[in-house]
From TrEMBL:
<dbReference type="GO" id="GO:0005829">
    <property type="term" value="C:cytosol"/>
</dbReference>
<dbReference type="Pfam" id="PF10294">
    <property type="entry name" value="Methyltransf_16"/>
</dbReference>
<dbReference type="GO" id="GO:0032991">
    <property type="term" value="C:protein-containing complex"/>
</dbReference>
<dbReference type="InterPro" id="IPR019410">
    <property type="entry name" value="Methyltransf_16"/>
</dbReference>
<dbReference type="GO" id="GO:0008168">
    <property type="term" value="F:methyltransferase activity"/>
</dbReference>
<keyword id="KW-0808">Transferase</keyword>
<keyword id="KW-0489">Methyltransferase</keyword>
<protein>
    <submittedName>
        <fullName>Protein-lysine methyltransferase METTL21D</fullName>
    </submittedName>
</protein>
<dbReference type="GO" id="GO:0032259">
    <property type="term" value="P:methylation"/>
</dbReference>
<dbReference type="InterPro" id="IPR029063">
    <property type="entry name" value="SAM-dependent_MTases_sf"/>
</dbReference>
Length: 215
């Protein structure tokens, strides 16, 4: 653990059981929501691991939205996907640090790229899979995240969304608004808990599988 006068780094390790390797995630003791590992990200990453027996991620193009520490995206990269981890410019150094920490155990690849929701200034490939973990946190989740998902995807893109159902503040209303708006543009299936990793699931964390509605 590396300490400074105001902040310090600490690392969490999570096993990719399919491969028998550990991923290491550097976090910060101080910072915004992007600087720590969240449970919903772990649930999504472990779901990918649990469902990867048929090597379905090998060679797939994956975009991880609002990556934060990169948990979900780096699980996908470890399992063979070509992953673009995206977040605000201020988060990219942490993502690059975590990519470097894990590059030797990735069966696929991982790169970090700036993506500000609602402003697709960079050219991204059409992904086979989009990952979204615990991004339903601010009003921007409804206002800009859904249009970004719509623009990045096509009719073949699968979108996996993990979120925690929170009771604090306006989070219930925000979640309802997000899901109502999401249903206007995407087909949504709730992934049943028996398909989650048996040791990494929670009654208040949900996984959704979405596909774009083509009119």
């Amino acid at each position: 653990m590396y300490e400074t006068s105001e902040n310090y780094e600490f690392t969490r390790e999570l096993e990719v059981e399919t491969l028998g390797v550990d991923l290491k995630f550097v976090q910060y003791s101080l910072g915004d929501v992007s600087s720590v590992v969240w449970d919903a990200g772990i649930v999504l990453g472990k779901y990918l691991d649990f469902q990867s027996k048929n090597k379905v991620l090998s060679g797939k193009i994956v975009i991880d939205i609002g990556s934060g520490t990169g948990v979900a995206g780096l699980f996908a990269a470890a399992l063979g996907a070509e992953v673009i981890l995206t977040d605000l410019s201020s988060v990219i150094p942490l993502l690059e640090k975590n990519i470097k920490e894990n590059v030797d155990v990735l069966k696929g690849s991982a790169t970090a790229s700036v993506l500000e929701w609602g402003k697709l200034e960079a050219k991204f490939p059409v992904p086979d899979l989009i990952l979204v973990s615990d991004c339903i946190y601010y009003d921007m989740s409804v206002e800009k995240l859904i249009p970004t998902l719509f623009e990045l995807s096509n009719e073949n893109t699968e979108i996996l969304i993990s979120y925690e159902d929170r009771d604090v503040g306006n989070k219930k209303e925000l979640l309802k608004n997000f899901l109502d708006e999401l249903r206007k543009h995407f087909h949504i299936d709730i992934i049943p808990r028996q398909l989650h990793h048996p040791d990494f699931q929670s009654d208040d964390i949900y996984l959704l599988k979405c596909k774009k509605i083509i009119s």
